[in-house]
Amino acid sequence: MPPPYQQPAYLQQPPPYQQRPPYQQPPGSQFPAGPPRPSAGGGKGGVIIGIVLVLFVVGLISRAFGSDDDEGSRPGSGGGGGGDVNFTMPSVVGMELQFAQDLMQDNGVFYSTSHDLQGSRNQVVDSNWVVCTQNPAAGTQVTGSAEGVIDFGVVKRGEICP
Predict the structure, then answer these.
(1) What pLDDT tens digit does each residue of the chain (162 aa) get?
(2) The Cα angle at residue 136 between residues 131 and 140, in degrees rounded to 5
(3) Distance separating alpha carbons of residues 59 and 67, to the nearest angstrom
(4) What pLDDT does residue 14 have?
(5) 151: enclosing H helix or E strand
(6) Are residues 101 and 140 in contact, defined by beta-carbon separation less than 8 angstroms?
(7) Domains along the chain?
(8) Which residues are CB-neighbours of 56 under 8 A, at least 6 positions away?
(9) Count of alpha carbons within 13 Å of 6, Cβ hemisphere only?
């Protein structure tokens, strides 16, 4: 039986370029060994930025959930929705649905409905729809709570009203 295969000696040692010793800093070098270390007093700027950020977030949260003393005091706000209104219904036939809804919101009605006169399509992008019919009719006095009472019959832009 032949002897087992053995690699030659030159293949058993790593090549010369892999035989380097690990890096050692020369004596008297001006650079410290290792990565730079932060000073004891550094990092105050990060703490200040963190405090300012926390105060800002707390201010936003308190503003969002706090009480608004002037709610409903702006003209046309209707008390923030759901309040009683008193206005004459304008004519919105021929208007974009988005403009008609904006006009209702200016009068204090923040929830109006619309339906497709050509089928059962949903009005996802209101500016793509045109008002053909309205209920209540133009000139009608709208009083009390009108949320969900006002309805617009619409068709897609470019279609003809039935």
Answers:
(1) 677 777 777 676 666 666 666 666 667 666 665 666 666 555 666 778 888 888 888 887 777 776 555 444 444 444 455 579 999 999 999 999 999 999 999 999 999 999 999 989 999 999 999 999 999 999 999 999 989 999 999 999 999 999
(2) 120
(3) 13
(4) 67
(5) strand 151-156
(6) no
(7) 78-156 (3.30.10)
(8) none
(9) 5
Strands (E), 36-150: 85-88, 113-116, 129-135, 141-144
CB 156, CB 119: distance < 8 Å: no
Dihedral through CA 32, CA 37, CA 42, CA 48, nearest 10?
Answer: 150
pLDDT at 41: 55
Hey, what are 68's tokens?
């608004």
Residue 82 region by backbone torsions, left for phi larger than 0, else alpha for psi between -120 and 50, else beta: left
Query: How many whole angstroms separate alpha carbon 161 and alpha carbon 117?
Result: 8
Return the amino acid letter for 32.
Answer: P
Query: CA-CA distance, 149 to 111, in Å (whole number)?
Result: 8
Q: How many CB atoms lie within 10 A of CB 147?
A: 16
